[in-house]
Specification:
heterotrimer; A mainly alpha; B mainly alpha; C alpha/beta; B: mainly alpha; two-stranded antiparallel ribbon; 12 helices; C: alpha/beta; D-Maltodextrin-Binding Protein, domain 2
């Protein structure tokens, strides 16, 4: 009787504090070592970008020699500043436009598809899901060239330019909302919806009144990820662009980084960085408000797990 | 009646995405086949796609095949170079990511949120901006040269941006390492601390612990991270373009990007792309399926 | 691992596959885009005869190749007559200009918009990296560019592809400001389609403080690109014709448009040798890379170093820039011209723009920014240096009119030969 599970439990209970103490000595050194590596990594990862931001405020033309603080490349340089160089302004507005349009299309159809996948079993939906996931790991250049060829050789109702870019981006980004919302749907489970049905809600009503609100954090994360990712996109956007009006900030960096850039290029990149930061912070605040009401943090975890 | 409409509801919800994928993923892919297996306009040397698979010609694929493995195999060095760059970059990403992810998962403590936020930061800083950052640092009068020459006093100035393979590889590592970090973090974060303690109590030394517990349990993260890093590099041309511009650092992506804009070569670009996709098919499918399984498990 | 594409697929599998694929393929073929080639051929004929044998397409042999010894008067395709005289410029139009980057002064564009402000004219400047890319994009017809800047190596395809519009000379009185030979150039007798932009030679540019020798004193200055001493510091132009042409000249040849397989084989080998010897970068940005010191030396066009003085970093003396091209004029020489693209939506404004650009004052203003010399009567080699358009250290970048008699222009090639050149370029760009 006494020789049952109890000794093992006692052993565990007893050994835990001891082992913790023992662990602390050697693992503290290890933790410091790892902390140092992490710090060095973070410096390496972020300082170059910080310097790029810094030099957007350089008062001279150089991107390597500091010549004093000024807003010259943002505002007052008569030809080269973001404010006065129309092509930079166009690139900025076009980039944001693409991000808005792509998010507005990709997230809704992705969320609906995730809802459908949750219930609809069969080869067709799982095949489509598989294809959507493939686009996720396929080199972007493959999708870009496919669409470029399609627009060039088929009489598509849209030509190269904004719509071709949006279509390419939506195809490429579709996997985000699908993956994230599916993970969330799996953790929610079917019982809430079933309860709603039992109380007399129609299927659509149950989705609208019960499932969608519970999906909110997943949708939010999808919106943020898609939006931020489109701001960064280069390959699809470049292959499917037409003229200067459909140039994005990433294309401009690619074209002028090795030609004759001024700190205005840094300024432009900084502005895009600010835009995406603002979107992420807003999203995070919205998420916090939601989570405070719901007390739920599973989505972030499921997101990290699915990346 | 109600049941039938409910059954119909799900396909209707799924329809937009499925139509989208068919129209803008499958059709473009098919057009690539039609171009790669098509002919070439005699005057402009632009591709003339062959829509009917029964009439597909294999000339362009043969050209690409010859350039890869035939007597005229000048694609091969670039292909081998690409694989070498990717191998080095993936290993380096892993070496960097493992300690960082492990620290964040196990030891970051109250700074965990902050460290995680900083690790995710590069995701919303555009790739191009991060390359621009290095171009600025590595240019002749950039900060790196200023530091190693101690402000111009020692004549050690290096021309970093003139076709140095290691600069390109560094760029790749810098650009892609976040994609390794996050899956690795997720995998390491799943290892429960009590498991490690149990192993330790059973007498596992630090190294044993790593080799027999941590490493095996982080394999999914390592595999996922490696895929996320390696697969996009197969199509990367801009890193080499921005940091080198020398043919001697050209990668497969550069070959494709070059031929796509050249009349008479875009069919070959399509064919080369198909070869690349074929080689990548197995890892892509494996990754996607393991991801789907993981999803079901969670 | 990839299976050989040559392996025959079994007949049954093939039939199975095609039974599935055929309806889809038919549907796709039905909406295949009509190639702009040969102009308004009917969509139906393009579908029923996908082999490319449409009636309007000229056989490759029938496109004449213009050269100084074979001047060509291009046909005017039916339905592509010049616009009528005396038309008003299109109101509130966006004129789409397609050109190399940094190859036209932005201030000049602003001036044009100001001068045509009453019509609400706006100019949108889009850029290409090389002519093949430009030709591909123009031909795809997806962007309605109005004006582009080209050279001889594409003119036949521009005309026979029905991509450009003949000019109405009434709109271009400023032609009188340029050298008379451009009113009847060998590449376009009667200047039916083209108006000259700038002239240039291809040579070598460098910074004398980074390259301690005077390249021009060498018996064969082109040898610098095969000199391992300069590895990692030099570049050649990102232009297949220029690099192949330069290699031919370096090996003592003069036919930079050769179709001789033996000569081309030798050229290819020499280019690969260059790759391993000096590991050049391949770029057209020498005009900023040399001033900034990223490159010490580069193959470049004559205007590149002249404009390069404006890209000098602070603290470096701009007089260290040097340019060499064969002083007897026996080098690569050429001129770019403006054409009015048929796909453009603003033909009248395009004529006005071309006229604006070719006029003396605008031309000079543009010259002082791009560094490329316009063929203006008002300019002489001496006045260009004296008036400060070209600094003294770059006097060698000034082109003498007589060079057009002895230099080697890069001509259009028969399609098969062009394919050879492209293949060599691919191999070069794939690296060694």
């Amino acid at each position: 009787m006494t020789v049952s599970a109890a000794p093992a439990e006692a052993l565990l209970a007893e050994s835990q504090p001891r082992s913790r103490r023992r662990l602390r000595g050697s693992s503290e050194a290890r933790a410091y070592g790892l902390a140092t590596i992490t710090a060095v990594y973070l410096l390496w990862a972020l300082v170059p970008v910080a310097i790029t931001v810094l030099f957007s405020f350089n008062s001279g033309r150089s991107r390597g020699v500091w010549q004093g603080f000024s807003l010259r490349w943002y505002t007052w340089d008569p030809t080269g500043s973001v404010l006065n160089d129309e092509s930079i302004r166009t690139a900025l507005t076009h980039t944001v436009l693409l991000a808005v349009l792509t998010t507005a299309i990709a997230v809704p159809i992705g969320v609906l598809f995730a809802l459908a996948l949750d219930r609809w079993r069969g080869r067709l939906p799982s095949g489509a899901n598989f294809l959507a996931l493939i686009t996720f790991v396929m080199p972007e250049i493959a999708l870009a060239i496919g669409l470029l060829f399609m627009v060039t050789y088929l009489a598509t109702p849209f030509g190269l330019g904004t719509w071709a870019q949006v279509i390419g981006l939506v195809t490429f980004q579709l996997a985000y909302p699908i993956v994230i919302c599916r993970a969330r749907l799996l953790t929610i489970g079917a019982h809430y919806e079933e309860a709603a049905r039992d109380l007399g809600a129609s299927a659509l009503g149950a989705i609208r009144r019960v499932t969608l609100p519970m999906l909110f954090p997943a949708i939010l994360v999808s919106v943020i990820l898609v939006f931020a990712d489109v701001l960064d996109d280069f390959v699809i956007v470049r292959y499917l662009s037409s003229d200067a009006a459909t140039e994005t900030t990433s294309m401009r960096i690619y074209q002028t980084a090795r030609a004759a850039p001024t700190p205005a290029l840094n300024a432009m990149a900084t502005i895009i960085l600010v835009v995406s930061t603002v979107v992420i912070v807003l999203g995070w605040l919205a998420y916090r408000r939601w989570a405070a009401r719901q007390g739920d943090a599973a989505v972030i975890k499921s997101l990290a797990g699915n990346l | 009646m109600g049941d039938r409409s409910t059954r119909l509801l799900w396909p209707v919800l799924g329809l937009p995405a499925m139509v989208w994928i068919a129209l803008f993923f499958l059709v473009p892919l098919y057009v690539v086949f039609c171009v790669a297996f098509g002919t070439v306009d005699p005057v402009f040397r632009s591709p003339v796609p062959t829509w009917n698979p029964l009439q597909w010609q294999f000339d362009q694929v043969e050209v690409v095949w010859d350039r890869l493995f035939g007597p005229d195999n000048f694609y091969l060095p670039a292909v081998l170079r690409t694989f070498a760059y990717i191998a080095i970059a993936v290993s380096a990403c892993l070496l960097i990511s493992f300690p960082v992810a492990y620290f964040t998962a196990r030891f970051a403590g109250k700074y965990r949120g902050l460290v995680l936020a900083l690790l995710i930061a590069p995701f919303w800083i555009s790739y191009m901006m991060r390359m621009l950052a290095w171009i600025n640092l590595l240019q002749p009068d950039g900060l790196v040269n200023a530091i190693i020459t101690l402000g111009g006093t020692i004549p050690l100035e290096v021309n970093w941006l003139s076709g140095k393979p290691y600069v390109v590889v560094m760029g790749l590592i810098y650009g892609y390492v976040p994609y390794m970090l996050l899956p690795l973090f997720a995998a390491l974060d799943r290892i429960s601390p009590s498991l490690l303690e149990a192993a330790r109590d059973l007498g596992a030394s630090g190294f044993d612990l790593f080799r027999r517990v941590i490493l095996p349990m982080s394999v999914p993260g390592i595999v996922a991270g490696s895929m996320l890093v390696a697969l996009p590099m197969m199509g990367d041309y801009f890193t080499s373009d921005l940091l080198s511009k020398s043919p001697n650092t050209a990668m497969i992506g550069n070959l494709i990007n070059l031929s796509i804009a050249t009349p008479g070569q875009s069919g070959q670009a399509g064919a080369l792309l198909l070869v690349v996709l074929l080689v990548m098919l197995v890892p892509m499918v494996l990754y996607t399926r393991s991801n789907a399984r993981a999803e079901v498990r969670s | 691992m990839a299976p050989s594409p040559r392996r025959p697929i079994s007949r049954r599998r093939m039939l199975q596959a095609s039974a599935l694929a055929l309806p889809g393929a038919w549907a796709l073929a039905a909406c295949a885009r009509e190639q702009p080639l040969g102009g308004p051929t009917s969509a139906a004929s393009a579908v029923t005869a996908p082999s490319g044998a449409t009636s309007a397409a000229p056989s490759p042999a029938s496109i004449p190749i213009a050269s100084p010894s074979n001047p060509v008067k291009w046909p005017i395709n039916p339905g592509n007559e010049p616009i009528a005289s005396g038309l008003e410029p299109e109101a509130n139009a966006t004129l789409r200009v397609y050109n190399y980057p940094d190859y036209l002064d932005k201030a000049v564009i602003k001036d044009f918009e100001k001068e045509y402000a009453e019509y609400g004219a706006k100019v949108e400047y889009s850029t290409f990296n090389d002519y093949p890319e430009a030709l591909t994009k123009i031909r795809s017809g997806s962007i309605p560019y109005d004006v582009t800047f080209m050279t001889y190596s594409s003119i036949g395809r521009l005309v026979y592809g029905d991509l450009i519009r003949p000019l109405n000379h009434d709109y271009i009185p400023n032609i009188s400001d340029v050298w008379d030979e451009f009113k009847d150039p060998w590449y376009d007798l009667g200047w039916q389609y083209t108006v000259p932009y700038v002239i240039y030679t291809t040579g070598i540019g460098w910074r004398s403080d980074l390259i301690g020798v005077t390249i021009g004193d060498w018996p064969n200055p082109y040898d610098v690109f095969w000199d391992a001493k300069y590895a990692g510091k030099i570049a050649v132009l990102d232009d297949h014709r220029e690099v192949i042409g330069m290699t031919i000249l370096r090996d003592g040849g003069t036919d930079v448009n050769t179709g001789d397989p033996v000569a081309l084989g030798r050229t290819r080998d020499a280019m690969l040798e260059m790759l391993s010897a000096s590991q050049p970068r391949v770029t057209i940005t020498g005009y900023t890379d040399i001033p900034e010191g990223v490159l010490a030396l580069s193959q470049c066009w004559s205007g590149d170093m002249v404009t390069g003085q404006y890209y000098m970093p602070e603290g470096v003396d701009p007089t260290v820039l040097r340019f060499w091209s064969p002083p007897d004029g026996r080098g690569l020489i050429g001129n770019d011209f403006m054409v009015n693209l048929k796909g453009g939506q603003n033909p009248v404004l395009a004529h006005h723009f071309i006229n604006f650009m070719v006029g003396k004052d605008v031309s000079l203003k543009n010259f002082s920014w791009v560094g490329y010399q316009p063929p203006l009567k008002a300019l002489t080699p001496e006045s260009m240096v004296a008036d400060g358009y070209v600094p003294k250290n770059l006097a060698s970048a000034v082109i003498k009119p007589e060079w057009f008699g002895v230099g080697y222009p890069i001509l259009e090639l028969p399609p098969a030969v062009e394919a050879e050149y492209q293949a060599i370029w691919q191999q070069f760009k794939a690296g060694a």
